[in-house]
């Protein structure tokens, strides 16, 4: 059986080789469209983060970026398509998306200082009432709003919901971002890094590529394979000509499921692979060579780590 790369990460070490107590956790960024999430992720990470396509709306939680601060690895996740769902499908997706927030160690609620508590923010606040995790309020775009308006907004938001702390920042100018990063680093629980440092930069893409393949599997096999498969990206190698070689393993629980995924003469997996490759290529912007493997891993459904990696809540009953 193949072990997951992610969990092989050694706890962090200081540069001079002294072992350090590390922390690691998930921070869910919640906010209405245009509140400045991408800008904030870039500001927190400190460099341009891989663009994660908005097209993939079926995912529960997307890794937007990974930050190291004071021996803490902060994994920033986003739960797309979360607000004011109109259609039934959207509503179903929103429900799962919120499980990403429930699973996070810290929930960062972003408010647009200019827009204030509008209809979308109201909808988020209503949903957040049932999220018990520590919540931090981040009022963004302070560069374009007066102090009085900001204070009023902070007060109104804090009357609605219990926040551990309120940060007033400008993701654009970087004002207040360092303080927020320090707070998040202190808030994530003690534990080893989830992603090895040499994989941090492509981790969001690895994760997204795995989500895409998983989505294609469900699209083709949803009735035959309910929730019993997971996909992991084992390797991601960029070649000189910019093309990318990606190897992924699809884990199923039983041999009968493996046969279903493979299909007659390998027809099903070929078709899943072709669909996934097309979409991953679009996001990567360069040719992609995708290699899929199917393996049986018994009882993965009982392993909380698997759920966590997918941004899912582990069902305890
Ligand atoms: N003035 C000002 N503008 C900002 C700030 N942060 C983000 N913006 C602007 O707000 C707009 C939306 O920012 P994004 O970072 O794309 O917002 P987002 O929340 O990621 O958007 P979605 O991914 O669509 O939900 C962009 O035009 C940003 O330049 C800020 O601190 N101040």
From TrEMBL:
Gene3D superfamilies: 3.30.300.20, P-loop containing nucleotide triphosphate hydrolases. GTP binds at residues 31-38, 78-82, 140-143. It is found in: Cytoplasm; Cell membrane. Residues 57-61 are annotated as: G2. Its main location: cytoplasm. Residues 221-298 form the KH type-2 domain. Residues 78-81 are annotated as: G3. It comes from the Bacteria. Residues 23-190 form the Era-type G domain. PROSITE patterns: G_ERA, KH_TYPE_2. Monomer. Belongs to the TRAFAC class TrmE-Era-EngA-EngB-Septin-like GTPase superfamily. Era GTPase family. An essential GTPase that binds both GDP and GTP, with rapid nucleotide exchange. Plays a role in 16S rRNA processing and 30S ribosomal subunit biogenesis and possibly also in cell cycle regulation and energy metabolism. PANTHER family: GTPASE ERA, GTPASE ERA, MITOCHONDRIAL. This is GTPase Era. It comes from Tardiphaga robiniae. The gene is era.
């Amino acid at each position: 059986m193949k072990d997951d790369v992610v969990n092989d990460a050694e706890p962090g070490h200081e540069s001079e080789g002294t072992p350090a107590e590390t922390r690691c956790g998930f921070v869910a960024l919640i906010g209405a469209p245009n509140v400045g999430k991408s800008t904030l992720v870039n500001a927190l990470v400190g460099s341009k983060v891989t663009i994660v396509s908005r097209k993939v709306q079926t995912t529960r939680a997307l890794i937007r970026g990974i930050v190291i601060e004071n021996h803490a690895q902060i994994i920033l996740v986003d739960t797309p398509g979360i607000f004011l769902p109109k259609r039934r499908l959207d509503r179903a997706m929103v429900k799962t998306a919120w499980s990403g927030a429930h699973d996070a160690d810290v929930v960062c609620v972003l408010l647009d200082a200019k827009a204030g508590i509008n209809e979308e923010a109201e909808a988020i606040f209503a949903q957040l009432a049932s999220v018990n995790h520590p919540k931090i309020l981040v009022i963004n775009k302070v560069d374009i709003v007066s102090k009085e308006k900001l204070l009023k907004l902070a007060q109104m938001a804090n009357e609605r919901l219990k926040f551990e702390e309120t940060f007033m920042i400008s993701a654009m100018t970087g004002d207040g971002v360092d303080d927020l990063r320090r707070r998040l680093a202190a808030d994530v629980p003690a534990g080893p890094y989830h992603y090895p440092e040499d994989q941090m930069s492509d981790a969001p893409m690895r994760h997204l590529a795995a989500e895409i393949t998983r989505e294609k599997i469900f699209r083709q096999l949803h009735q035959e394979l309910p929730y019993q498969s997971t996909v992991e990206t084992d390797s991601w190698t960029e070649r000189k000509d910019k093309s990318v070689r990606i190897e992924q393993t699809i884990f199923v629980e039983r041999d009968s499921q493996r046969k279903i995924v493979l299909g007659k003469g390998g027809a099903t997996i070929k078709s899943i692979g072709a669909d996934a490759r097309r979409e991953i290529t679009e996001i990567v912007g360069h040719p992609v060579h995708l290699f899929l493997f199917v393996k049986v891993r018994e009882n993965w459904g009982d392993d909380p780590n698997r759920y966590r990696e997918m941004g899912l809540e582990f069902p305890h009953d």
